[in-house]
Amino acid sequence: MPQSDMLKFVTVGRAMPEKRTADDRRDDFGEIYREYAAEKAAEQSSRCSQCGVPYCQTHCPLHNNIPDWLRLTAEGRLEEAYEISQATNTFPEICGRICPQDRLCEGNCVIEQSGHGTVTIGAVEKYITDTAWENGWVKPVVPARERPESVGVIGAGPGGLAAADMLRRAGCKVTVYDRHDRAGGLLTYGIPGFKLEKDVVMRRNDQLVDGGVELRLNCNVGEDITFQQIRETHDAVLIATGVYKSRDLGGPGAGLSGIVRAIDYLTASNRIGFGDSVAEYDSGELNAAGKRVVVIGGGDTAMDCVRTAIRQGATSVKCLYRRDRANMPGSQREVENAEEEGVEFVWLAAPKGFTGDDGVAGVRVARMRLGAPDASGRQVPEEIDGADYTEDAELVIKALGFEPEELPALWNEPALEVTRWGTIRADFRTKQTSIPGVYAVGDIVRGASLVVWAIRDGRDAAEQILDRFDAASAAVAAE
Fold first, then answer.
1. What is the pLDDT at residue 114?
2. Which end of the chain is more exposed for a tag (fewer CB within 10 A), N or C?
3. Domain 3-134: what homologous superfamily?
4. Mean pLDDT value of segment 286-300
């Protein structure tokens, strides 16, 4: 296809894959967007303007070669499109599903800025890789040669697995340690199936295992094995634990039963999806069925909780957020999906306490207004005196974000330096911590962030570790 045939954004409108109706999708945890047909994927890819300075690529944390694989898709060269996509991204089919494209690649598309509607980059990325799996183009991890070095990765989330993939392809022996019984971290237990069906994650896990990566699951570092033992076992160690300590709420009644953490609630729901037995779900503690549900928070985790509660059969679902719609951190696309499914958003509302005797019966809500901007430039929410009211609820889910666990104390490793926020202190370029040969990536360094940034960090750390191994080998050879 000549490049001139790519500039179809003037004559071809933007079209997302068909979205299942709200009534249909409320009844299950299947993904809500259907797959593109080949012709539609090619048509939407052909809308790309092939601009000389591709802002979509610049604003992608992985700097994916987006214009290249869009053009290849438009030309029907899907296997080549997949190879280009996979070259910079360990999990393109996952990013195509869960990345906030409206804030990254699609939000910075040149034709979006000119008013023609962005290229549907995420949907095409998902289509390319799903097609690659269907046709057997996704190859097993097969190193060109085996290396003598061994790397221990702590944490089987997206950052740790991205690093493990690259290190194993380079021939290193890789062991991944994780406290859960399945690898994937938040991809497995944090993100609901309606955004990311779990077989998509499991087949990547299987690919790593088939390629020789060892997964040590149900292994809690600091309890089942010491951090020092891991360091003694491997030539390098990568910490990619993520952040799982939930921010809490105070106020009267904060200890009542029926007030739960988002991570516990989402994990239980995902386990049920796997067919596991979950006592807290069966007892109703982590089950929204038949209950009035209030979710507190305005990020993507809150969106996951409200949409999960709808699918579990809640009587009503309300989301309280202390700022307005324009200032919420969660994806606007997710808010729209939630509203379609029956979620009610209560803007400029903050919890002051909780009512109830044996269990929570309501949330005491303060009405807010936005005041002067703070040092970050965001307007500060201020309480409106005398405007309190009570929101009825039998289940309250706290989705207020996550903080790092105190790893130096948990692992009995005081030499592991942390920042004043509790995140691990690591060099921006090398990813190395205060301990030689120990690296750290992802949310445990950045704070709670995006999956795509964890993948980027994991890949960068793998390169740094390999460079260190090569330099050591060269030094030995020179002696």
1. 80
2. C
3. Alpha-helical ferredoxin (1.10.1060.10)
4. 97
SS3 76: coil
pLDDT recorded at residue 7: 63
Mean pLDDT of the region 431-455 = 97
Q: Which residue, chain included where needed, has tokens 């292994």? A: 219
- The third-level CATH classification (topology) of the domain covering 253-400 is FAD/NAD(P)-binding domain (3.50.50)
pLDDT 10s digits, 233-280: 999 999 999 999 999 988 999 999 999 999 999 999 999 999 999 999
Q: What angle do CA 416, 421, 424 make, to 5 degrees?
A: 25
Tell me which of 61-65, 428-432, 471-475 is least confident: 471-475
- Side by side, the strands of the sheet bearing 438-440 are 214-216, 173-177, 150-154, 236-239, 438-440
State how far the Cα of 236 lies from the Cα of 113, in Å rounded to an integer. 45
Distance CA 185, CA 442 (A): 12
Summarised one tens digit per residue, pLDDT across range 308-341 is 999 999 999 999 999 999 998 888 889 999 999 9
Residues near 277 by beta carbon (within 8 Å), at least 6 away in sequence: none
Cβ-based neighbour number of residue 447 at 10 Å = 16
Helix (H) or strand (E) holding 346: strand 344-346
Distance, CA of 457 to CA of 166 (rounded, Å): 12
Whether residue 473 is predicted with pLDDT greater than 80 in this model: the reply is yes
Q: Which fold has domain 150-243+404-478?
A: FAD/NAD(P)-binding domain (3.50.50)
Considering the chain, what percentage of its residues have pLDDT values greater than 90? Answer: 87
Q: What single string gives the DSSP state of each residue in 267-311?
A: HHHHHHHHT---HHHHTTTT--TTSEEEEE--SHHHHHHHHHHHH
Rounded to 5 degrees, what angle do the CA atoms 281, 284, 286 make? 55
